[in-house]
Structures are given as C-alpha cells and as structure tokens.
Automatic annotation (TrEMBL):
Gene3D superfamilies listed in its UniProt record: Invertase/pectin methylesterase inhibitor family protein (1.20.140.40)
EC number: 3.1.1.11
One of the record's GO molecular function terms: enzyme inhibitor activity
Record-given protein name: 21 kDa protein
Amino acid sequence: MAAKLVGFCFVILNVVLHVSTSSGQGEQQQALTALSASVTKTQSCIAFLKTLSPANKAVQDCIETITSSVDHLTKSVKELGLVGKPNEDLALHVNNVKTWVSAAITDQTDCLDGLDGPNADAKLRDSIRPKVVESSQAVSSALASINRLPTK
C-alpha cells in the first residue's frame, strides 16, 4: 500500500511539474500551484466529512484535524507568496512553509489514526479513509515540490 501511495504522489507531482514547466512557471510557482491544489483537495475532504454523522466523535475529530490542516496549508500559501520579495529571509519563509505543510500531513494522519480505535465503525472508516488519503497525497506532492525550492 505504501508503495502505491508513493507512486501516486510522484504521478501527481510530475503532472503539476509538467504543467507548470510547460507554461513557463518557476519552481516557486510550481510549489504554489501544488500547494493551492492541496488546499482545494483538503477543503473537499472537509465538505465530505460534514455530510457524515455529526454525532460521531471520530467524525468530529477528523473535521477538527482536517480543518487544522487547511489552516496550515492556507498559511503556507501566504508565506510562500513572500518568497522572493525584497528584504525577505528566503530560508525562513521556505522553512516555515515546510513546517506547516508537514503539520498538515500530521493532522491528516491523526484523523486516520482516530478511525482505527477499538470502537471504530468499520463502514464509516472505510468511507472516510479514501478521502483523507487522497487529500494527504496532494499535500505530500506539494511538500515534495516545496522541498525543491532553494533556501539561499
């Protein structure tokens, strides 16, 4: 399963990089494009979660952690926009983005971990997991693109 996930991430990243490169965009724009796509995918995940049983603690926890993930990603988009501006510390901004995107991945992992408890509803877990994994793949692809940015 992990190999398929990694492979899928590289497919997404290659598509983003191909589209960005062929349209003349630089590495920063490629990272912004991937990051923006991950925000959209993660917001879609939240919308899906909100259609599920609101009384279920695991669903509530997932909504909370995935919302935190969107917050980290949105903050990252704004921070990445500062890269390259005059008098801005490039390394600081890129490292902030890496930290926040990594935190977004952790949030999504926390959601999935919460679905595996001893009293977990297997049917509910099986409906949520693909949406969260899809979002996590987009975020991982964005992080891979961000890791290609220069810090000097």
